[in-house]
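User: Before I run my own analysis I want an independent prediction to cross-check against. Here's the chain; please return only the structure tokens and, at the end, one sentence I can use as a sanity check.
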Amino acid sequence: MMGVVPLADALERANLAGLDLVEVSPNADPPVCKILDYGKLRFQEQKKKSEARKKQKVIEIKEIKMRPNIDTHDYDVKMRAIRKFIGEGDKVKVTIRFRGREMAHQELGMRLLIRVREDTVDETKVEQEPAMEGRQMIMVLASLK
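Assistant: Structure tokens:
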């Protein structure tokens, strides 16, 4: 803490110390400067940014594909996968694909999606309600956390 010092004097002090004069807050009145190693400061800031990036969790959307007439064991396997994805913090897109004459029985797909929603009601919330997109019925689930 040197108080208010003329620019030439501050630059001379930084030169004598073998360091740089770095403007910390230019908007202050008067501007605040520090005498320090600028290369080292940039390296530390870069290190902090990379640490923050490492700790960041990227939420992915995992997709589970089913058919309207899925068997009970196959359904249980898919439900285990959904619970695993939700536990890892990812969103799950449940897709029911209709082929041929199955398009005439879309209520089977709706019942299946409602069953998925009811089976995961304690651990997920519905982010996108079931809706038809061409020959597919889609619903998106997200974790309650």
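Sanity check: The CA atoms of residues 93 and 140 lie 4 Å apart.
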